[in-house]
Amino acid sequence: MMKQKSKKKVLTYTLLYLVVLIGLTWALVPIIWMVLSSLKTQAGMFSMPPKFLFKPNFDTFQYMFSESGGFLHYLRNSVVAAVSSTAISLVLGALGGYALARGQFKQTKHIAFWIISTRMAPIPAVMLPLYLLFTQLNLVGTMTGLIFAYTTFNLPFALWMMMIFFKEVPEVLEEAAMIDGCSRFQAFLKIAIPTATTGLVATGILCLMFAWNDFMFASIFSGHRTQTIPVAASMLITQQGIAWGQAMATGTVIITPMVVAGLAVRKYLVQGLSMGAVK
Q1: Total domain count for the chain?
Q2: 8 Å CB contact between 43 and 245
Q3: What average pLDDT score do residues 163-192 get?
Q4: Are strands 241-242 and 237-238 parallel, antiparallel or unpaired?
Q5: What is the 3-state secondary structure (H, E, C) of the chain?
Q6: Which CATH number does the domain housing residue 131 bear?
Q7: Does position 167 have pLDDT exceeding 60, yes or no?
Q8: Residues of the domain holding 140
Q9: Average pLDDT, stretch 148-154?
Q10: Highest mean pLDDT among 115-124, 217-226, 269-278
Q11: Would you say residue 34 has pLDDT above 70?
Q12: Are 25 and 71 within one domain?
């Protein structure tokens, strides 16, 4: 009986590891292929059989980041829009989430549901109303309009997440601080925020990823001077063909900052998400 259980356990773990390996291969092989292709010449990308050992070629990256390539312009727009939207969403989301977590509202659950429901709505469903509103405010084609568009979707998510994280913070810590002379806002800054740092970091990374990778909002609300990297990548597909070298290099630039950021804060990301999931 013990041998049979041991065999079943080994078989189960073998199957689980096999499934995980297949999933990782499915997810990582296209990314690795893209990164390797960005370091090859046009002919090297389509050589058969594929070459995995080759001399890296950085000509495409050098051209993109030169003045004539113009890629730095799109990169700056992406950084400004993504970071600004994330910062605004975190500040307002932390304040609103704390209010819902600690406030004595009779309809707290209903308010929280309607807030997150705006994030659950499909982007095309809100595109036309936002476009009409931004047109009236002369925000279409401006960086301010693009930041507001990102914040429209990031803020409800940030508020909902921070509400969950603040509910996990023991309220007695804030009460002790207020007994010692702190105001409610001081207790929020000195007790609640430091205690929920992991949740704040996790929420910030997820908001940053959405704004950084977005194409639909940027394609509608940005102008010639405010286009972001995903929009620039779409312009590499023309009637004359696809600029494969620049497309692969652009994809590498898009994914690299998010991978680096995710790895740098992976501990906080896992802790923050698991913290918010515990009830």
Answers
A1: 2
A2: no
A3: 87
A4: antiparallel
A5: CHHHHHHHHHHHHHHHHHHHHHHHHHHHHHHHHHHHHHCCCHHHHCCCCCCCCCCCCCHHHHHHCCCCCCHHHHHHHHHHHHHHHHHHHHHHHHHHHHHHHHCCCCCHHHHHHHHHHHHHCCHHHHHHHHHHHHHHCCCCCCHHHHHHHHHHHHHHHHHHHHHHHHHHCCHHHHHHHHHCCCCHHHHHHHHHHHHCHHHHHHHHHHHHHHHHHCCHHHHHHCCCCCCCHHHHHHCCEECCEECHHHHHHHHHHHHHHHHHHHHHCHHHHHHHHHHHHCC
A6: 1.10.3720.10
A7: yes
A8: 62-277
A9: 91
A10: 217-226
A11: yes
A12: no
**Same-domain check for residues 70 and 109:** yes
Of the three residues 57, 82, 104, the one that is the final residue of a domain is 57
The pTM score is 0.81
What pLDDT score was predicted for residue 279?
A: 44
